[in-house]
């Protein structure tokens, strides 16, 4: 969360922190490439089943876009809730498609910006 917000959508914010290389001594994460974390506050997704469904969508979307993402620590943060009137079921396919579309848009913004990838 110490990293700057590099992209936003109506429901998500993407934070990025550059990872130091092995030449700087001890690594922050024992992972080369992109590291992804997820923050889903109960404030915006009250039901655990919804938070877990969103989390799975985040990890799958980043797995599919891995080749386009910069080598950095990325944190996807839910910054507003999905309407319970529009998405009645906690794990509906409609909710999953809406989340996936927004995540694809979010990750596409960081992949399309060369100054962020460096």
TrEMBL record:
Descriptive protein name: Ribonuclease P
GO CC terms: ribonuclease P complex
Pfam families documented for this protein: Ribonuclease_P
Key words, A-Z: Endonuclease, Hydrolase, Nuclease, RNA-binding, tRNA processing
InterPro entries for the chain: Ribosomal_Su5_D2-typ_SF, Ribsml_uS5_D2-typ_fold_subgr, RNase_P
Species name: Hydrogenophaga pseudoflava
Phylogenetic lineage: Bacteria, Pseudomonadati, Pseudomonadota, Betaproteobacteria, Burkholderiales
GO molecular function terms attached to this record: 3'-tRNA processing endoribonuclease activity; ribonuclease P activity; tRNA binding
Xref: SUPFAM superfamilies: Ribosomal protein S5 domain 2-like
């Amino acid at each position: 969360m110490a990293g700057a917000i590099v992209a936003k959508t109506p429901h998500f914010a993407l934070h990025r922190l550059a990872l130091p290389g092995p030449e700087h001594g001890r690594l922050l994460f024992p992972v080369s490439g992109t590291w992804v974390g997820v923050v889903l506050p109960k404030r915006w997704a009250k039901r655990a089943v919804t938070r877990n469904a969103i989390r799975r969508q985040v990890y799958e979307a980043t797995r599919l876009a891995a080749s386009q993402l910069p080598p950095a620590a990325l944190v996807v943060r839910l910054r507003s809730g999905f309407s319970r009137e529009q998405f009645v079921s906690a794990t509906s396919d409609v909710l999953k498609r809406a989340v996936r579309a927004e995540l694809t848009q979010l990750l596409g913004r960081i992949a399309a910006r060369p100054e962020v990838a460096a």
